[in-house]
Design a protein that fits this description.
Elements lengths: L8 H8 L3 H9 L6 H14 L5 H8 L4 E6 L5 H16 L3 E6 L6 H8 L5 E5 L5 H8 L4 E4 L9 E4 L2 H14 L5 E4 L6 H17 L14 H14 L5 E4 L2 H13 L9 E3 L16 E3 L2 H13 L9 E3 L2 E4 L9 E2 L10
Parallel strand pairs: 1-2, 1-3, 3-4, 4-5, 5-10, 6-7, 7-8
Antiparallel strand pairs: 9-11, 11-12
Helix pairs in contact: 1-2, 1-3, 2-3, 2-4, 5-12, 8-9, 10-11
Amino acid sequence: MSNSHRMTVREMARLAGVSVATVSRVFNGTGQVSEEMRQRVLESIKAHGYQPDHRGRALAARRHNAIGLVFPGLAGPYFGELIQGFELEVVQSQAAVHILCTHMRSDSDEQVIEMARRVDGLAVLGGTVSDDAVLRLAGALPVVVLAGKGPGAVPSIRAENHDAMRALTTHLLETHGLRDLIFVGSPDGSPDISERWDGFRAAHRDTGRAQRRRPVRAALRQEDGVQVATQLLKRGPLPQAIVCANDETALGVLVGLLGAGVRVPEDVVITGFDDVQMAGLVAPALTTVRQPIRELAAETARQLLRASTDPPQSRLLPTELVIRRSCGCAGARNTTGDPARRDP
């Protein structure tokens, strides 16, 4: 058959008059199949020259045809981007996505373990549930930690954080000659934020600059950034630069300070991390680090979808420093030197 390589497992099952799972059991030699059924499938396979691809074999191996996604919450553009990247991959593979939000739940571990009984694989945002729960889950089904490090041998898909934040902070210290920088974020609340805090400190060590010992602890929402701006205005005077752990916080700080008549970047520099769409649309546009948010989630989904034939493996995706007006640079550019949009 000239185009047999394009045949799907569902087509093969239809031609043989059996279920998709039966085709998979016969081809892989697993599970119980009657001799009559096995011969029927083998004859059909031989007649049509069927060879399963990874997606077809994974589909046949699923018990629930669903993949789970565990987040602390769904608010904000960052989580929206992650969900879109994850969902697109899963839906294209003819499976369903089950989402569990653990925000404000004291029984998060138990809820995730219960969810695992209804899915064939599980993506858990780093730091959302305990390491013990992740390890327990990994003993029962494929688990990938998204945007964080997995405990033990549990694989993770994450973006580079430390070196990117070190590069951003070094840009402020050396290119702009700033001395008084503060970091806004809670390193103990997220593996990603912890790595960014470490990168912030590393830049100070590399350049021989003194730093404020403690970060300004804040959650990652825009309203939290507005609260940080209010606190900083009350304390006064403002630092020379506010280095935020993510864009949403940075945008909140920006809105709060601009609303109080503070000029950015003339009076204070503000930077973020993520490069959400709004970061390039505000005035001044936000200097930040671009991470491949959708690709993080898409790669996590792909690894879980093919887990029955190809066990998930850890991956570290690259990030990119994006220089815009909020740090005081006259024009916008990125670290490759490619031209970028100039702020109006």
